[in-house]
Amino acid sequence: MLRARDVEATGCARAAFTTRLGGVSRGRFAAFNLSYAVGDDARAVADNRRRLARAWGCGPERLVEAAQVHGNRVAVATPEAAGTVVPGADGLVTDEPGLWLIVYVADCVPLLVVDPDHPAVGALHAGWRGTAAGAASVLLEVMGCAYGTRPERVRAALGPAIGGCCYEVDAPVAAAMSPSPWWPAAARRTGPERWRLDLREAVRRQLRAAGVPEASIETIGACTMCRPDAFFSHRRDRTTGRMAGCIRVHPRG
Ligand SMILES: [Zn+2]
């Protein structure tokens, strides 16, 4: 069975994070790999995606992906984007009912947001480069421009990602991030030119700085690298599968 976790129940949207459990992929990709781009058997990935779609009661053709290029660009997904990969983007937003935004991760932070007022939703793949470039803030700005979203009304969920327990970064990462106000809270120095970085905390602080209330941010605290039984981790295994964070506005009627 699919072990997706529902994290949002505002009545207008549904969101979930998958784990590695419940699919048909084998070996390094066992079992619920959702990415075609990592070397897994395409038939297994297709089967896994069908399982995900079935669990949500909608077809894979309603799925929109971002190309995930480790940038901070967020694209507005229109109905015409259904079934496509949006080039050059790491984040997607939409107010189209039934259109399913999906980001793939194995250590990077999957961020899902809901604006219950419009309603509209957003999904972001936040690695260190995107986070250093303020991608979570950009997502809220794009939703503000497109839908009039107010950060103080947003609900957000941060999914399974590599934790501050395991994510060691070096000087180039620190140089890119340390000018940011959240750096001291998210990073801990562990040696000469070595830091442990809590990427989720960095994203969470970006959301807070943009005006999202503390109580409106849910964090799934699990570390992907610490839990090989439950999660794929690129840092731990290199060649491995991808989990998903996915969100949609409920279809009409
Ligand atoms: Zn860990």
Description of the molecule:
With 253 residues, the chain is α/β, with parallel strands linked by helices. It has a single domain, classed as CNF1/YfiH-like putative cysteine hydrolases. It has helices spanning 42-56, 128-132, 135-147, 171-177, 183-186, 199-210, 234-237, and strands at 5-6, 13-17, 63-66, 74-76, 85-86, 91-94, 100-105, 109-115, 120-126, 155-158, 168-169, 187-191, 194-197, 217-219, 243-249. A six-stranded mixed β-sheet has the order 1-2-15-7-3-5, with no helix packed on it. The chain has a six-stranded mixed β-sheet with strand order 4-6-9-8-10-14. Strands 11-13-12 form a three-stranded antiparallel β-sheet. The protein is globular, with a radius of gyration of 17 Å. The two termini are 27 Å apart. 47% of the residues are buried. Residues 1-9 have low confidence and may be disordered. The structure holds zinc ion (ZN).
Keywords:
253 residues; CNF1/YfiH-like putative cysteine hydrolases; alpha/beta; six-stranded mixed beta sheet; disordered N terminus; globular; 24% helix; binds zinc ion
Task: Annotate the secondary structure layout.
Blueprint: E1 5-6, E2 13-17, H1 42-56, E3 63-66, E4 74-76, E5 85-86, E6 91-94, E7 100-105, E8 109-115, E9 120-126, H2 128-132, H3 135-147, E10 155-158, E11 168-169, H4 171-177, H5 183-186, E12 187-191, E13 194-197, H6 199-210, E14 217-219, H7 234-237, E15 243-249
Parallel strand pairs: 3-5, 3-7, 4-6, 10-14
Antiparallel strand pairs: 1-2, 2-15, 6-9, 7-15, 8-9, 8-10, 11-13, 12-13
Bound molecules: zinc ion.
